Every structure is written in structure tokens, then in C-alpha cells.
């Protein structure tokens, strides 16, 4: 046995690393540098490796004979098997005695099923001291020369403990990894091998296969000379250790074969698409794949997707406006129209081009739902989206549940549209959406012959059974809801006969207008809108106007900050949406409309707002459905107005993204405003807004309304839970800052 020695470190316990390649060597050196063990011992069969390990400070002791070294170990020490995967069982076989003595053992092999099977074979059952592990770190370089003590910093280590694993040993191994900067997670053995087959083993097999294919070609020198960019990026991992990958391929055979078969199938389809010049298929694969990849990137960066799923919160801190607000701005595209453009564009025959599309989380959820149902959608890129419509019957079953985030419009309208498809669908949403009432669509759709199962109390998730034959109905809406009206009309496109919906008060009519734009006949008689099922939609181009609901925040802001003058460009002023302008004018606001025009069936204009003293009013009830989304910010206008503002007949506000009556009343009261919530409205006395802190309850419009209140407050306001602003108004803080708002975004980890 050859023994070499370095100086000792200070902590207690010993670490024995068997195999001093890249992983074993890096772990040994990192542990040594961080002083996490009193002594780090390395075992290797090669004298040259042992020599280098000592020279480079990788270990304190270097040994060539494993059996003799094992005698040095005591209970509480840790042994790491860092030999090639197929050699793990032979090494493990020598460690039974030390495990019985209380030494913890782990390994670093990339496949866990084969290691656990070998351990169970050797010892009759999994030893409680053996914790299978896998650091997700590496490099194309291998061997002791490549050792890197920072290799594990901010990398994951997956441990796959089994039923009889001892918590004490698990903790020992966990501490060893966290000491070198790794993040330790746990996973069942099978899941580990399946996940790794897909994310690591398959790409390596592919990279080796591609390089080998090209290397075997005649004239490959020419090919390799020109193989820059893509080839180099794609094949970087084919520079990894061949023996290691040989072992992995054989140890994780089953899971790798499943993935290889799937990929072979996809490749065959791609081959045929290229052969038959099937651009639709190719664009479908490429756009879906790009989106999926961006989606992974977003998840890893904790960007919007995670914000929408509430894993990462943003708070706003506002300061009073130091000066009047000013500017010419264009707020993002209309949310309602953006949703509908995706739905009708997907069902139309031909190519629909959408410009001004709202790239907010809500409308992106609708877009993604149609991608999941096989529609080829290019973009969005700066608001431009190209939809390759499939025709009325071209949607395909999605691979899983359609996740609709925070978006009630997506869920309710899709419920109607999907009720008539030939396949089943499941619709899910985030915490807020999961609390919202869905019977308002599920019940009338059932009358049409739809089969829809809801969760408890008529809430999401919705399971929609396909293959039903729908019949038109005559339906009187119990509440003024454009979503319910639209859901029934969309189902009516597929129903036999006429679907007629009567509304108690006019609600936004974008669905009817857009159906007309796609060449589908819709009739209106007084308060009833109707259509006949069975016709086709023909692709068209859609220019989405700026969203009046987003513009509303600036209308109130400019009104309440003295000396302000803001022009909002290209705002949709559909008569079913202009309640906010009507109400503000009744309160005394100075609002003028310029450049009125008609774009694709929707009226738009530039809206100029100058500050003016506001007075409290009793809001006319006929304006409620026309301003339904703008009340949070109208309440802020009321708080800044002289006198009392009274709202009645707005019980619908209680079932929006939050209970908007309660959320606003609570927030205003905590800022020193007298506000009394009623079951169907609110009474607000104008006054002085103090600084303080409020909770948006994850509701985008509550968050932005209080940001507007912050302009006139006496001190700073902390608004909690503002991430969902991205659902309707991406870029709100930066656009608001352009006009003179003072908002700081504070990131908060859950
Ligand atoms: C919408 C209708 C309204 C509105 C929502 C969008 C639509 O909901 O509040 O933000 O696009 O149809 P209700 O139909 O529930 O009133």
C-alpha cells in the first residue's frame, strides 16, 4: 500500500473518496478547501493520480489500497464511491463491514436504479447507511487534471434515499454536499432515472451519434471545417468521457430506450414533413419547441411564469408624485380582444395576422392553450402573431390539462368552445382562478348538451367531455357577463339551430364584432344576440387597440395630480367599454377624444386627460357593466374627490380576480380614507390619502389602483403581491415611470 500525506485540516470526521476523477477529485478538493472534514483521504489505483492529487491539494492522504484504508474509518465518517457506474457494485461489495460500523456511504453515479439493484443483491436489502446520490455537475473534461473545487457551487445534487435509509446517514451525506456549495434535493429512484434519461442521457447519445455519423462520412474533413456554430453547440457534450457514457447507456437501458423510441418517432415524422414540404408541420414543431425552451428558461430565471404561479412575489413601493404627470403613451393591447383573436383565429380557415396583441400572462395563456391543441402560432413578437387557423374542426387533443393561470376569460370562453370538440379537456388555473365561480358557464352549457364536471362548489378545475352533440338554446343571463355570453356564443357556433342570449344590461360585445369580422353572421335584436351553428370562420387581420382598462389608470392619475396632461394613444373606445370615461366626466374630469377611427370593427381614439378637481357622485347603475374592470381605480378617484361617491348594483366585483369591493375598502381604510363596503358596492368619502401598506391580494387591478393612489398619498405606500400585474399590463412600472410615477419594485422570495 502506498501512502502519501498533506497537512491536516481542523473539522472533525473523515471523508474517503474512492476514485479521483473529475467528480471525486473536485469533491475531495472542495471539502478540503472548505474544511468540512478533519481529513480527506483519496483512493485510486493509479500512482500517478495519487501523486497529482497530493501535489494539487486535492486530498490530505492518498492511498492505493482500499481494504487497508477502510480500517482507518470510524462511525460518522463518510465514504464517496466516485468510480465509473458499472464498477460501483464491486466497490460497494467491500463496504459492508464499515457500513455496519456506522460509516455513511454514498455514490455519484448518473444512474440510480442499477446501483440500488446491485446493493440490494449484495446485502439482501438496501443498507440503511448507503445513500445513492447524483451530483448534476460535470464538464467535457475528465480526470484529476480537470478538478475544479467550485464545480458544485449552485449545482443540484439529487439523493435517492430508500425506505430503510437512516436519517442520520442521510443528514451526513446532505451536509457533505451543502458544505461544497451544492443544493441537495431528494427524488425516488425510478423518477431520477426517467428524468435523467430525458434531460441528460438522451442528449448525450444524440450528440455522440451525430458526430459519429458525420465522422464516418467521406470527405468529412470538409464537413468538419465548415461545422461551426450550431454543430459545435449541439455536439459540445460529445467531448465527454466515453467510458462513463458507455456505463450510463447500459445501466439506464430501459428509460433511455423509451426516450430514444419517442425521438425516433418524432424524427420519422420530421423526415416525412421535410420530404413532403409540409411547412405547416415544420413550423408547428419549431414554434412549439422554441416556446417550450423559452418557457424552461423563464422557469429557471424565476420570471413571469413563476410569478404567475406565485412562487416569487414582487411588491411595489410608491412615493408621491413630485411633479405633474405628462406624456404621450400607448398602453398594451386590449386583453379581451387579444383572447378572442387567438380563439377565432385558431378556428378560422386560413392565416390570421394579429397586431397589437397583449403579451400579458392572461392572453399568453390562451395562446398557449391553442398551441397545446396543435394550432401553429408564430410569435408573439412585438405584438405580432400569425395564426395558422385549423378550421372549425381542426383542433387536436392537448397532451395534458390546459393551465390558464389567472385568466377567468380564458377558462370561461374556452369552456364554451371546448364543450363542442371531439376530445376531452381539463382546464386548471392558479389559486385565484381556482376560487372563481364556473357554474355560470357550466350550467347553461349543460342545457345545450355539454358535459362539464367542475370542482367543489362549481369551481375549477373543469373537465369537459368531448364528443357531445350541442343544441342551441334561448338563454337569459342572470347577471351582466360578457364572458358567459361569449361562452354560449362560441358553443353556439357548433350547436344545432339558434343560440340566443339575452343580457340584463349591455356588456362588452367584442365576441359579436369579431365574429362578424371573421365572416360569421351574428344578429342583434334589442338586448338579445343570436347566431346559427354550423357555418365557417374565414381568416382575417386584427389590429388590437390599446386596452381602455389599462388606460384607465392613467386617466385617473392625470386627473388627480394637479397640472398633469397625458395623451393615451389608439385606445379602444367601444361604447360597451367607456363607462370609465363617462363616470370620470360626471365627476368633473377633463377628458377629450381625438383622432377617432374604426379599426377592424372596433372604434379607437387618442384620449387626452388633463387634471381637474373631481367631485363625488352616485354612479349611475347603467354604467356599471361598462366600467366593470375599472372600479378599483375609480375608487381611488373617489378618494381624491370632494364629497361622497356611492356605488350600487356592482355585486359582480365580489367575484373578480379578488373580492374587489373588500380589497379596495380595506386598502383605502388603512390609508386613512373613509370607505364602507356594501354587499353590492361601496361608499367612499373623499379625503387625504396617508402613507401605509396595503395588500393587492394578487389582483393586478388592485395593485395598479393603489399605485395610482400613491401619487397623491402623504407618504410612501407599500403594495404587497404585485406580480400579477403582468397578467394584463406587462411593463406597467416602466411606462408609469415615463409619465412621472415613482414606483420601486421590490422582489420578495416566498
Ligand atoms: C371580460 C368580461 C368581464 C371582465 C373581464 C373580461 C371578457 O368579465 O370583467 O375582465 O373579456 O369577456 P364578466 O363577464 O365576468 O363580467
Written account of the structure:
This protein is of the alpha/beta class and 750 residues long. It folds into four domains: 14-187, Rossmann fold (3-Layer(aba) Sandwich); 195-277, Orthogonal Bundle (6-phosphogluconate dehydrogenase C-terminal fold); 314-330 and 546-748, UDP-n-acetylglucosamine1-carboxyvinyl-transferase, Chain; 335-543, UDP-n-acetylglucosamine1-carboxyvinyl-transferase, Chain, CATH 3.65.10. It is 38% helix and 21% strand. The protein has a seven-stranded mixed beta sheet with strand order 1-4-3-2-5-6-7. Strands 31-32-11-33 form a four-stranded mixed beta sheet. The longest helix has 27 residues, at 189-215. The radius of gyration is 32 Å and the shape is globular. The model is unreliable at 1-10 and 301-311 (pLDDT under 50). Shikimate-3-phosphate binds at residues 336, 409, 481-483, 486, 508, 628-629, 652.
The number of helices is 26
The SS-based structural class is: alpha/beta
Total number of domains: 4
CATH topology of the largest domain: UDP-n-acetylglucosamine1-carboxyvinyl-transferase, Chain
Residue fraction in strands: 15-25%
> What strand order characterises the main sheet?
1-4-3-2-5-6-7
Helix content: 25-40%
Q: Would you tell me the overall average pLDDT?
A: 93
Give a short account of the largest sheet. 7 strands, mixed
Distinct ligands: shikimate-3-phosphate
Shape: globular
Instruction: Determine Rg (CA atoms, Å).
Output: 32 Å
**CATH structural architecture of the largest domain:** Alpha-beta prism
* E-strand count: 33
First-last Cα distance: 53 Å
CATH class descriptor name of the largest domain: Alpha Beta
Low-confidence parts: 1-10, 301-311
The CATH homologous superfamily of the largest domain is termed Enolpyruvate transferase domain
Amino acid at each position: 500500500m502506498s501512502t502519501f500525506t498533506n497537512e491536516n485540516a481542523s473539522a472533525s470526521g473523515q471523508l474517503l473518496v474512492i476514485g479521483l476523477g473529475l467528480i471525486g477529485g473536485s469533491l475531495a478538493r472542495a471539502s478540503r478547501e472548505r474544511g468540512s472534514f478533519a481529513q480527506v483521504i483519496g483512493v485510486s489505483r493509479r500512482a500517478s493520480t495519487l501523486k497529482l492529487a497530493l501535489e494539487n491539494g486535492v486530498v490530505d492522504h492518498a492511498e492505493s489500497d482500499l481494504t487497508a484504508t477502510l480500517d482507518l474509518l470510524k462511525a460518522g465518517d463518510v465514504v464517496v464511491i466516485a468510480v465509473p457506474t458499472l464498477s460501483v457494485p464491486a466497490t460497494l461489495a467491500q463496504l459492508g463491514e464499515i457500513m455496519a460500523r456506522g460509516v455513511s456511504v454514498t455514490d455519484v453515479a448518473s444512474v440510480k436504479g442499477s446501483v440500488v439493484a446491485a446493493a440490494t443483491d449484495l446485502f439482501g436489502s438496501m443498507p440503511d447507511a448507503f445513500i445513492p446520490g447524483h451530483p448534476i455537475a460535470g464538464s467535457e473534461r475528465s480526470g484529476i487534471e480537470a478538478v475544479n473545487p467550485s464545480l458544485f457551487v449552485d449545482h443540484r445534487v439529487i439523493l435517492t434515499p430508500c425506505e430503510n435509509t437512516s436519517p442520520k446517514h442521510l443528514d451526513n451525506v446532505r451536509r457533505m454536499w451543502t458544505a461544497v456549495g451544492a443544493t441537495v434535493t431528494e427524488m425516488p429512484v425510478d423518477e431520477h432515472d426517467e428524468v435523467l434519461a430525458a434531460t441528460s442521457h438522451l442528449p448525450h447519445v444524440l450528440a455522440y451519434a451525430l458526430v459519429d455519423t458525420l465522422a464516418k462520412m467521406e470527405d468529412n474533413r470538409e464537413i468538419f471545417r465548415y461545422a461551426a456554430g450550431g454543430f459545435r453547440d449541439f455536439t459540445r457534450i460529445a467531448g465527454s468521457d466515453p467510458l462513463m457514457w458507455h456505463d450510463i447507456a447500459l445501466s439506464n437501458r430501459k428509460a433511455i430506450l423509451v426516450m430514444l423510441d419517442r425521438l425516433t418517432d418524432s424524427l420519422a415524422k420530421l423526415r416525412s414533413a421535410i420530404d413532403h414540404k409540409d411547412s405547416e408541420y415544420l413550423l408547428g414543431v419549431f414554434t412549439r419547441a422554441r416556446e417550450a425552451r423559452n418557457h424552461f428558461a423563464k422557469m429557471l430565471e424565476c420570471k413571469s411564469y413563476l410569478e404567475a404561479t406565485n412562487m416569487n412575489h414582487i411588491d411595489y413601493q410608491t412615493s408621491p408624485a413630485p411633479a405633474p404627470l405628462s406624456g404621450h403613451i400607448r398602453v398594451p393591447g386590449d386583453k379581451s380582444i387579444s383572447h378572442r383573436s387567438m380563439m377565432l383565429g385558431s378556428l378560422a380557415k386560413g392565416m390570421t395576422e394579429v397586431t397589437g396583441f397583449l403579451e400579458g400572462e392572461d392572453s399568453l395563456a390562451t395562446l398557449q392553450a391553442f398551441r397545446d391543441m396543435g394550432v401553429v402560432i408564430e410569435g408573439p413578437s412585438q405584438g405580432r402573431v400569425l395564426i395558422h387557423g385549423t378550421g372549425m374542426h381542426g383542433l387536436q387533443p392537448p397532451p395534458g390539462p390546459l393551465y390558464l393561470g389567472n385568466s377567468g376569460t380564458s377558462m370561461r370562453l374556452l369552456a364554451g368552445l371546448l364543450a363542442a370538440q371531439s376530445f376531452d379537456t381539463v382546464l386548471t388555473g392558479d389559486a385565484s382562478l381556482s376560487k372563481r365561480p364556473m357554474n355560470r358557464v357550466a350550467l347553461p352549457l349543460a342545457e345545450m348538451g355539454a358535459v362539464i364536471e367542475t370542482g367543489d362548489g362549481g369551481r375549477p378545475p373543469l373537465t369537459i367531455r368531448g364528443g357531445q352533440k350541442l343544441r342551441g338554446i334561448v338563454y337569459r343571463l342572470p347577471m351582466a357577463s360578457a364572458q358567459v355570453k361569449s361562452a354560449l356564443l362560441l358553443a353556439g357556433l357548433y350547436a344545432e339551430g339558434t343560440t340566443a342570449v339575452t343580457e340584463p344590461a349591455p356588456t362588452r360585445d367584442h365576441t359579436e364584432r369579431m365574429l362578424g369580422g371573421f365572416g360569421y353572421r351574428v344578429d342583434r335584436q334589442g338586448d338579445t344576440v343570436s347566431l346559427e351553428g354550423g357555418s365557417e370562420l374565414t381568416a382575417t387581420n386584427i389590429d388590437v387597440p390599446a386596452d381602455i382598462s389599462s388606460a384607465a389608470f392613467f386617466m385617473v392619475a392625470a386627473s388627480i395630480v394637479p397640472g398633469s396632461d397625458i395623451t393615451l394613444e389608439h385606445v379602444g373606445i367601444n361604447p360597451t367599454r367607456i363607462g370609465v370615461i363617462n363616470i370620470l366626466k360626471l365627476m368633473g374630469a377633463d377628458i377629450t377624444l381625438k383622432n377617432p377611427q374604426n379599426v377592424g370593427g372596433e372604434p379607437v381614439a387618442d384620449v387626452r386627460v388633463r387634471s381637474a378637481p373631481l367631485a363625488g357622485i352616485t354612479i349611475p347603475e347603467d354604467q356599471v357593466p361598462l366600467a366593470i374592470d375599472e372600479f378599483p381605480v375609480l375608487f381611488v378617484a373617489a378618494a381624491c374627490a370632494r364629497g361622497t361617491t356611492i356605488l350600487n348594483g356592482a355585486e359582480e366585483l365580489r367575484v373578480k380576480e379578488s373580492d374587489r369591493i373588500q380589497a379596495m375598502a380595506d386598502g383605502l381604510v388603512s390609508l386613512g380614507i373613509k370607505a364602507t363596503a356594501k354587499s353590492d358596492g361601496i361608499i367612499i368619502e373623499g379625503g387625504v390619502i396617508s402613507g401605509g401598506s396595503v395588500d393587492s391580494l394578487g389582483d393586478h387591478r388592485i395593485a395598479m389602483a393603489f399605485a395610482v393612489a400613491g401619487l397623491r398619498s402623504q407618504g410612501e405606500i407599500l403594495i404587497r403581491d404585485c406580480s400579477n400585474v403582468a397578467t394584463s399590463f406587462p411593463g406597467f412600472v416602466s411606462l408609469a415611470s415615463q409619465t412621472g410615477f415613482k414606483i420601486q419594485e421590490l422582489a420578495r422570495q416566498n
